[in-house]
Amino acid sequence: MNSTPPPPLPCETVYVVDDDASVRDSLSLMLSLKGFATATFGNAEDFLATARPEWKGCVLVDIRMPGMSGLDLLEEVRGRFPGLAVVVVTAHGDVAAARRAFLADAADFVEKPFDSSHILAAIGNASARLAAQAARQPRVPRGKLPGEVLTGRERQVLDLVMRGLHNRQIATELGISPRTVEVHKARVMEKLGVSSVVELVRLHDGPAES
Predict the structure, then answer these.
(1) How many other C-beta atoms lie within 10 A of the C-beta of residue 6?
(2) How far, CA to CA in Å, does 38 sit from each of 13, 19, 30, 56, 194?
(3) Which of 91, 94, 121, 93 is nearest to 108 (CA)?
(4) Model confidence at 115, in pLDDT bands (50, 70, 90)?
(5) Which pLDDT tens digit goes with each residue over 26-52?
(6) Distance between CA atoms of 141 and 144, rounded to whole angstroms?
């Protein structure tokens, strides 16, 4: 009997977010039998209240749930949790939803009804995505921590970005214009050698060793 092994790290943990308890239970059981650690959540709000920046793995999220939708959760995860990749699951798939999911950097998009091979393939894609991101881990100058190459104002902007504030919120907090915030943010990313806020979060939370 053939058995599909789980993909390599960093997707040893799968977080299932679905308002249907039977779906949560069946996915958790199937994934556990395949060697994954799992955690289940009945809605996106509970997941966000529990999730931590250091979490690594794959999030399987239903697209339609009461409250925050799966696509909204995808966008939140993209901005706040660089160690997580998201697979969107839906019984209501259409071109517009799939397009929004991939534009929001979903690792994959799976339509119900699905079988275990579809889910495992999607988790494999998520694992490959995270492995590629880890290989591109930026490095700060030798002997320097991220904050040591920034001006005082740039450190303030960086700290507020890490808190999840958007440009206008940062501008209000610091009493400067949104355009000035953009300039400071661009300088921070240039100095630290990153090209996106996701890479900036990853570097800030855990700079690579020289």
Answers:
(1) 16
(2) 6, 16, 10, 12, 32
(3) 121
(4) confident
(5) 999 999 998 889 999 999 999 999 998
(6) 5
